[in-house]
Amino acid sequence: MLISVIVPVYNIEKYVGKAIETIIGQTYRDLEIILVDDGSTDKSGEICERYAVKDDRIVVVHQENGGLSKARNTGTKIAKGDAIAYIDGDDYIHPCYFEILAKNLIEHEADISVCGMQVVSENEYENLSLSKDVENAAIEISAEEALEGMLSQKRFSLSSCAKLYKRKIAQSHYFPEQELFEDYYTVYRFFTEADAVTYTDAGLYYYLKRAGSITKKKYSHQMMDYIKHGEQVIEHVKQSGQQLMDAAISRLVWACFYIVTHIDDSSKYREDEEYCWNYIKKYRTKVIIDNSAVKKEKMLCALSMFGKKPLKLVYKMSLR
């Protein structure tokens, strides 16, 4: 089974070499590695080209800067693999990442194979050593179970990474270009197209949490894309049946907490804050009594009864 690995690259010369090394060093060898240089102004594109000379499995695409979604979409459209995976160019993967994901996909006759994700700091990124000994206890779950687990934040995340998709799934929907939090609705839709999902909690994907990430940026109105995608999920759930509505509402409320707590008291984005605060007030009681909601969100919903200030303080402490 040929796996197409799509790696968006933009101004990450410090990290992209390690990402590529962990891909070409995989124990699973049948790979098509598509490096999409999204208009980098540093040496990232040159680094990609140097690796392409060394390994004929690598294809390098250079394009004008269009953002993460456009880079992923470019790779998806030209991918030749039977399965497709997305790896961000500043992250890296375990040596057995594709061997395990592919094995689980085939053995469980699944449409999507998922593994655990570990968040690493810059210091851990530099010093982490990876053993090839992995305990892989994969389970098979329905797409609906997977969706409920993702939306309620209990099983795995809505990230497009740490997952291997059959080609028909990855090419069924494209990432929204020029938008933030692009994984939210798109990955949700990938799972709505799947019949079966396999999951191992082995942490094989290493997500680098660096200073320039979206989670650490100052608030801007474009971050309301987070809420837009949450509303899209709820609308789709309404149209396809109500089974996932509690989980969809829970995830939207979590997105609203993110927005409200990222807007400071002197901000000019008061309208955005009130828009999200109204959702919190509307749904917080529902989340509190929802047995499937995570404890942290239940606590924040309860705390919101006392106003925004204590909520913001506790929320920010919970992220440390």
Q: What does this protein structure show overall?
A:
By secondary structure, this protein is an alpha/beta fold. It has helices spanning 16-24, 44-54, 68-78, 97-107, 122-127, 143-151, 167-170, 183-192, 225-240, 245-262, 270-288, 295-304, 308-318, and strands at 3-9, 31-38, 58-63, 83-86, 92-93, 112-120, 139-142, 163-166, 196-208. Strands 1, 2, 3, 4, 5, 6, 7, 8 and 9 form a 9-stranded mixed sheet that branches. The mean pLDDT is 91.
Secondary-structure topology with pairs:
Elements: E1 3-9, H1 16-24, E2 31-38, H2 44-54, E3 58-63, H3 68-78, E4 83-86, E5 92-93, H4 97-107, E6 112-120, H5 122-127, E7 139-142, H6 143-151, E8 163-166, H7 167-170, H8 183-192, E9 196-208, H9 225-240, H10 245-262, H11 270-288, H12 295-304, H13 308-318
Parallel strand pairs: 1-2, 1-4, 2-3, 6-9
Antiparallel strand pairs: 4-8, 5-9, 6-8, 7-9
In short:
45% of the residues lie in helices and 18% in strands.
The sequence of SSEs as H and E is EHEHEHEEHEHEHEHHEHHHHH
**Could you give a short account of the major beta sheet?**
9 strands, mixed
Strand fraction: 15-25%
Relative helix content: 40-55%
What global shape is seen? globular
Low-confidence stretches: none
Average pLDDT number: 91
Radius of gyration: 20 Å
Structural class: alpha/beta
Note the gap between the termini.
Answer: 41 Å
Number of strands: 9
Number of helices: 13
